[in-house]
Amino acid sequence: GEAGGYHYFVMEYVEGKTIADDLANGQVIGEKEAVEIIIQVCRALEHAHAHGLVHRDVKPKNIMINTQGVVKLADMGLARETTDIEAAQSEEGKAYGTPYYISPEQIRGKIDIDGRADIYGLGATFYHMVTGKVPFTGDDSAAIMRKHLKEKLVPPDHINTSLSAGVSEVIEIMMAKHREDRYNNVEELLIDLEALRQGHQPLQAHKRFDVSMLEQLEEGDTVEANEVQDAEEIITRYRLYLLILGAVSTVSVLIIVALLLL
Predict the structure, then answer these.
(1) pLDDT (tens digit, 9 = 90+) per residue, 8-40?
(2) Distance (Å, rounded) from C-alpha 166 to C-alpha 206?
(3) Is 57 marked active-site?
(4) Is residue 248, in this structure, part of any structural domain at all?
(5) Total structural domains in the chain?
């Protein structure tokens, strides 16, 4: 709005905490509570995606819980309209996101990013919540992103053995390297999450856990060779030109990987 010649922007004040606050000391969130939180985040993403927006930075720090226990998905600063071709083309070859939770297609700087990138980021967040560990670690951002592209995901129930096989399967599908192997949309994901909430099996995940998917997960080779080569050029040949916005002391950073033409 505008008042007295000054422009202003109003945001909701959320009194409470973020998921990152709970995870800061290696805390593991219980399976039942985690499923409830992820369901609420999915509702927010469902609304955003229905309006043509992709969040592109789903992570623990951007998931807030108010004093009434209501989950809020925050920080739409990286959000982009899927129909904004001009913006997409201007960002081609650049990766926007947070290394621990970024999707493979964002790392590659693809211009046709859709809601499945948010599903991957939410899957990485879900993984962190129920294991107390991020899916991939490395000495620097480049190493972490390289693992998102190429390294086999350690199933979450191999880290937290108390997890149900159903939750583990859902997370693995959410974090499939190829977006075609993930849930098609959050509506499909919600079917499985609601099933888990009721103590049933995630049938949508079971449908995707066919023989070929299991082989891909076993081999850790779910990215096309040419795409890996392209991404390697972004990550290694040009060696990460980083623009970090915000406090360095937090895990919330905006990484811009610039592909420079020789």
Answers:
(1) 878 888 899 999 999 998 789 999 999 999 999
(2) 9
(3) yes
(4) yes
(5) 1
